[in-house]
Write a structure and sequence with these properties.
mainly beta; seven-stranded antiparallel sheet
Length: 112
Amino acid sequence: MTSITSTCLVELDGKPLPAETAPLLIAAYVDDSQQLPDAFVLRFRDPNRQVLGQLGVQVGSSAKISVQVADGAQPAVLIQGEITALEAEFDQGGTFTVIRGYDQLHRFFRGR
């Protein structure tokens, strides 16, 4: 039976996710748009509120999200951008850390 899988690869400030943080990533979302800046959301389960400290990121840090297919081909880059928001979510399901960002085009959409 053929197995088809792909892996999400995340780099923050040019470094892959640390081994202790990578398993906490529960969702990675990329929104690719033709007329608006591309966006991404990374959602981590974070019961001890340590993810941001382990990652060492802040607003303005660089982010790159790629996908690696199982056949060993080069990873396909989905988005290269920068972090624009760091959030904490608390609900009955637990504690989560959310990292949001956009590609560089978002800078042209700010009003002055």
